[in-house]
């Protein structure tokens, strides 16, 4: 596979917080138009890796590329220079991120939440941003909630709005960090359904999740992390169906308890 086919490429990425090394040389390749599910015990570095991919965290060593572009740094004659915050923000614009907590603006309507960034960050005319927001609300099944405020929505609905809000920036990559972990069980399916639709439409996605049914059905690749390293990766059948490492087996059986 050439670099050109990859939407995300991590090369020996290391990240420490003080003396605690949480990413110990991560290599990862995410081909365009594919879904990678990132699984592993709490504290293994999954969120940190996602945050490094959009440069919310600086890496200490290694390189991260998104769509062939080095994230967070510029390379000149073999030396890396950190880019400005404005340049990092420009890179981040193309990467949608959805968190466990939905982080909607509480004082803005659903429509206002979705149009905020396109209008204020990208300078999209309001009417155009609203038309696009309505299309996205159709996609996530919430067109009838355009004028509602977040507090009037269920957790599942708020998360679907958060996904629409990320999509409004036309990202080339979507990062999901345990998007259904905060939801009541009966609301998980509607959010996973929206994510499955995105995958079917060819969105490149990295999804940190404990939903093994979703990983099995939607992921092209499953990556199991523990203690800051990739222990095992492969197709869902390989990693979930026939894990090779004891740590993977232990983790998967812990999910069933
Ligand atoms: N900002 C931070 N400062 C210090 N330690 C952190 C910070 N963020 C995460 N960590 C630590 O890094 C490790 C990995 O965390 P995280 O990436 O959140 O793991 P995961 O998402 O797999 O549960 C944990 O030990 C966590 O306490
Ligand atoms: Mg996490």
What does this structure look like?
By secondary structure, the chain is α/β, with parallel strands linked by helices. The protein is built from nine helices and twelve strands. The protein has helices at residues 46-53, 85-92, 110-120, 126-139, 155-167, 185-200, 212-218, 236-241, 246-255; strands at 6-17, 20-31, 35-39, 61-66, 69-70, 73-76, 79-82, 95-98, 173-177, 205-208, 221-226, 229-234. A hairpin with a 2-residue loop joins strand 11 and strand 12. Helix 3 (110-120) crosses helix 4 (126-139), helix 4 (126-139) crosses helix 5 (155-167) and helix 5 packs parallel to helix 6 (185-200). The longest helix has 16 residues, at 185-200. It is globular. The relative contact order is 0.16. The mean pLDDT is 95. It binds adenosine-5'-diphosphate (ADP) and magnesium ion. Magnesium ion (MG) binds at residues 46-47, 177.
Task: Provide a compact summary of the structure.
The chain is α/β, with parallel strands linked by helices and 257 residues long. The protein has helices spanning 46-53, 85-92, 110-120, 126-139, 155-167, 185-200, 212-218, 236-241, 246-255; strands spanning 6-17, 20-31, 35-39, 61-66, 69-70, 73-76, 79-82, 95-98, 173-177, 205-208, 221-226, 229-234.
List the helices and strands and how they pair.
Elements: E1 6-17, E2 20-31, E3 35-39, H1 46-53, E4 61-66, E5 69-70, E6 73-76, E7 79-82, H2 85-92, E8 95-98, H3 110-120, H4 126-139, H5 155-167, E9 173-177, H6 185-200, E10 205-208, H7 212-218, E11 221-226, E12 229-234, H8 236-241, H9 246-255
Parallel strand pairs: 3-10, 3-11, 8-9, 9-10
Antiparallel strand pairs: 1-2, 1-4, 4-5, 6-7, 11-12
Adenosine-5'-diphosphate is lined by residues 17, 20, 22, 40, 42-48.
